Fold this sequence. Notes:
The complex is a heterodimer.
Chain A: E1 7-9, H1 14-24, E2 28-31, H2 37-42, E3 50-53, H3 58-61, E4 64-67, E5 70-74, H4 79-84, H5 86-91, H6 93-99, H7 105-110, H8 113-119, H9 126-132, E6 136-141, E7 144-149, H10 150-153, E8 167-174, E9 181-188, E10 195-205, E11 211-219, E12 226-227, H11 229-235, H12 242-249, H13 266-287
Parallel strand pairs in A: 1-3, 2-3
Antiparallel strand pairs in A: 4-5, 5-8, 6-7, 6-8, 9-10, 10-11, 11-12
Helix pairs in contact in A: 11-12, 12-13
Chain B: H1 14-18, E1 34-40, E2 46-52, H2 54-57, E3 62-67, E4 100-101, E5 107-113, H3 116-123, E6 127-132, H4 139-142, E7 158-165, H5 167-175, E8 179-190, E9 199-205, E10 210-215, H6 220-232, E11 239-242, H7 259-270, E12 274-277, H8 280-286, E13 290-301, E14 307-319, H9 332-335, E15 346-355, H10 369-387, H11 391-398, H12 424-435, H13 437-449, E16 453-462, H14 470-473, E17 486-492, E18 498-502, H15 511-523, E19 530-534, H16 551-578, E20 585-588, E21 591-594, E22 602-603, H17 604-613, E23 625-631, E24 640-650, E25 655-666, H18 673-692, E26 723-727, H19 745-761, H20 776-787
Parallel strand pairs in B: 1-12, 10-11, 14-15, 18-19, 25-26
Antiparallel strand pairs in B: 1-5, 2-4, 2-6, 3-5, 7-15, 8-13, 9-10, 9-12, 13-14, 16-24, 17-18, 17-23, 20-21, 21-22, 24-25
Helix pairs in contact in B: 10-11, 10-19, 15-16, 16-17, 18-19
Amino acid sequence: MYPEAFSYHAPSTVEEALALLERHGDDAKLLAGGHSLLPAMKLRLSGPTHIIDMKHLRGSLDYIRDEGDDVAIGALTTHRSLERSELLRGKLPVLAETAGCIGDMQVRNLGTLGGSVAHADPAGDLPAAVLALDAVLVAQGSGGTRTIAAGEFFHGFFETALEAGEILIELRIPTLAAGSGSSYQKFFHPASGYAVCGAAAVITPDASGNVASCRVALTGVSEGAYRATAVEEALVGKPFSEELAAAAAEHAADGIEPLEDYFADATYRGHLAKTFVKRALLTAWERSG
Amino acid sequence: MAKYVGARQKRVEDPRLITGNARYLEDVQLPGMLHAAVLRSPYAHARIDSIDTSAASRLPGVVAVFTGQDFADLNPLPCAWQAGGVTNNANTPRVLEIDKVTHTGMGIAVVVAEDRYAAEDALAHIEVAYSVLPTVVDAKKATEAGAPQLHENAPDNICMTWECGDQDGTDRALGASDVVIREHLTNQRLIPTAMEPRGAIGSYDPGTEEYTVWMTSQAPHVMRLLMTAFVMGIPETKMRCLSPQVGGAFGSKIFLYPEYPMVAVLAQKLGRPVKWTESRQENYIATTHGRDHQTDFEVGALRDGTITALKVTTYANLGGTLSTIAPGIPTSLYGSMLSGTYKIPHLHCQVYGVYTNTAMVDAYRGAGRPEATFVIERAVDLVARELNLDPAEVRRKNFIQPEDFPYEPASNLLNGLAYDSGEYEKALERALEQVGYREFRQEQQEARQQGRYLGIGLSSYVEICGVAPSKWVGLPGEGWGAGLWESANVRVHLTGKTVVTTGSQSHGQGLETTMAQVVADELGIPIEDIEVKHSDTMSTPFGYGTYGSRSAAVGTIALYNSVQRIKEKARKLGAHMLEASEEDVVYQDGNVFVKGSPEQAKTIQEIAGAAAVAYDLPAGMEPFLDDTAYYDPPNCTYPFGTHICIVEVDTDTGRVEIKRYLSVDDCGPVINPLIADGQVQGGITQGIAQALYEFAAYDDSGQLLTASMMDYAIPKAEHLPHFENSHTVTPSPVNPMGIKGIGEAGTIASAPAVVNAVVDALSPFGIRDINMPLTPQAVWRAIQEAGR
């Protein structure tokens, strides 16, 4: 519980933060909410010699803005802000719902969207929602900003498309088509509260009760959050029913080797993936229209 | 007239705890204090070939680095309670290990530095060469041929083989039974997880050659005895031990740990005080664990549900070395309670105490009785299931009846002691009525039609509290080799303000409140006039500390007896002051007066003043109202009750939801219902957690997989139902207050209630048992396998 010594920096602009990142390279770590980084440091699993605290950037990176086709969310927006945002509850309810499933109140008051997504914990909740919402992630580096599609962002265990020297500054999330329903269904680990399995689903029906489009993503099951495209394909264009949802959910872990640990082995986790995808689909459909 | 006893008196401890003004060990700062960090073995079984501390010693802030060789003149820690009547192949830890480690987390070196950061940094610079040895973590496998051997003096890793009861009679009775049911039960390993981790501070006065050791202990007097007389070889009068505010323990702070003598010796070597406090990770790998039994049992019964015999074989995992009272837990405190609340004419229990490459296992809340209760309460349900009888009916049929007391169970372990009193059926009937048992069975049937799986589980327990009678525990060959009586001192000062000191120790139980309630009522003074002090060997009479639900049934009785003597002296002095004859005066509600003339009274405050000023005392009377009592009870006490749990199982995921939890406990008269409810609810919480959530998982190489709260599932409010608690009151004939004890009842009763409920819910699948913990995966798998 006693971390190694480190130097502490608290830049006031993204540019200053980028300059510090460039100067200290792999020896530096960005500190947002700190709920993953600080425990790792206290257990001496992580020993960065430079901590770049983002707290002074909250003024510029903590926002939820309606931009018409998109909702733009600053990377330092806390889980609690997401959970309580009237804008999100109206336009992207699954994001508010997912954020409300994270940790406890203290964690949600400090943890940030950008921190969670960039950390890419395989059992983190928000990556599933970000994938199911087809978000676009905005990264800033010394050469300017670039955008990364959510589907390209998560690369497995704590790995993302972010390059060294880049900072995730914003997520842009397309507004859902009219009549869409969405849901995040989570199996909480009784100790950590992380997702043993979390399934996010967004479904848009057409006028005749068929599935017009659908996106499903899972977390907790594999080395990183992933889109369950086989589930989506099994649904699109077909009249929705409980049987169809169940049959489609059978594909929740297609091509995936589920994680295995003392709490849930691969078989059980694979089963949870199917069960929670089914539950997410049924709930999302119920909320649609 | 009882004013305080029986009232929901708010705890006098709470304001300081809630406002952050309580002084825990970490709050104790001594001038010039150094900080220690212990290097712990990352391997579960290894020889230590060499340790090089030179690089670590040179780091800034580091004062000294020591290894086991530096403490080689100290004895290994003692094992104070060995299994009675048999050979114990004892192996205990040293202050720091020298040659070999037998579980991860054993200390092999210590860094002492100016601050904790410097000490922690230096650990990484100590070079240790290990020869890693093969490991075994499972107690049964450890006894099999070819298993790695941990200790030369313990062939097949067996510390002791112990038995109780009558083997031949049990075998014959099983043979004559209509049905015999066999089952294998796991009582998994748990981590006690007190809110405050352990710690110790040593200081040494070279002038007086006296040590002072602050520590997080449930029994400072016992710690002083073990450290001085057994480990350090110095007079116990040369050490003072103190426990400041202790933040929970659940048994894990009864024991002597290597770090306690270590800080004392370090302070003497370095001439400065030394503090060591553990991290949560150290707490999980290096503090004792609890339970870890594998049990096979056979229970025999007649067709009408009468139980004829119980035969039990248990492999008790003791860990890599023995903790202070480890062998006593799965033997005396387990075998003695296997008969539960039932008349079982024939009983036999064989226990193998086994070394494995895991953390030491010792008493954890309930200590032996939860393990015993789990066996008998599962067995009774299996009998009911096999014979297609109602589990409540099988309990009724076999209960020990009120007229059977004193009742000595067939385990025959109590050296002539016997269950004291009980009305087991009354508690069961009240619980069934409160829960609406018949209505529930109807609801359960209807739910099953809709594909919902509800279940109800009963647990009619009896436990043994007030583990103290020297006649039992002090019996030569029983293994303790000491009595467990308790002490108290009462002093009524000149103004009537009263100080009570006790050999018991409060680490969350609220003794400062409950003891004051008893004294206030008995002396007839306001509770605000009483201070209860404990946990300092210099200012309290010698006592054995708090564990085994003994501080009400033993420690408080010592206090009660002391107050009676104070009252008698006050009565005599009061008579003298009233110029009345002793025979004519009474002591009532803090006043002494001539019978029939209460208006002419002397108050206890006036009498205390007269006793202290002492210019006019009756002939031969000593000054001052001061009395010390040592109470050695004639028997233990035996609280009991029935708990009922209702669950719903999500068969898709295996998740268990507790819908209702109801307890009817009987601990005799309740001193403080608020505190008793807290004890029961906390206890139930730990039992539910054992049934559903908690387990210490080791991999085959002896690495603890659940070494943090991210992995080890401590129950949280969201995991728990609303508790419905009530009591019946059956006084114990053992002590003058009739008190039985309540500290562990909840833990002892609850795990089988939950498991019985889940198995009941899943009976349509043909499931008759699932091993604890009933994690979602375990329940789901049982359903899958039953479906095949």
